[in-house]
Structure formats: structure tokens, C-alpha cells
Amino acid sequence: MKKNSQLLIRVSDLEKSGFERAAEISGVGLSTWARQALRAAAIKQLQDAGEKITFLEPLPLKDKKDGK
């Protein structure tokens, strides 16, 4: 999925430090970590509301006959 939009948020210094540390522990950059956390939170919120999750790409199904 092409990433062509930015999301700017304001956080406290302590929050930013905590987010940076969590990203470091996870072994990813802050932007990747934040996007993963936001996606997980949005998926849960949308599922709980019975809404479609438009940003998830469908996974191709394997054909049981071919094993593909």
C-alpha cells in the first residue's frame, strides 16, 4: 500500500520518549512502530463497531486441490 499522506500529532516529551523506546525494543523505526500501533487500535475499534476495515488488503486464498 502506497504511503502518500502524513499524520502529524502532538505528544508530550515523556510520551515521545516512551514511544521511541518501544520502537527501539521492537526493532523498528518510530514511524513504523506508530503506524503498527495505530493500525492495531483502529482494527479493534472498527471491528467492535461492526465497520469494514478498508485499509486491510485481502489475502489470497490457497486452492485446497492444488495446495497453492
Attribute tags:
elongated; 0% strand; mainly alpha
Explained architecture:
49% of the residues lie in helices and 0% in strands. It has a domain at 14-48. The protein contains 2 helices and no strands. The chain is mainly alpha-helical.
Q: What secondary-structure arrangement, pairings included, does this model have?
A:
Elements: H1 13-26, H2 30-48
Helix pairs in contact: 1-2
H and E string: HH
Largest β-sheet summary: none
Low-confidence regions? none
What general outline do the C-alpha atoms trace? elongated
Q: How many alpha or pi helices? A: 2
Helical fraction: 40-55%
Explain briefly what this protein structure is.
This protein is mostly helical. The protein has helices spanning about 15-25, 30-50. It has a domain at about 15-50.
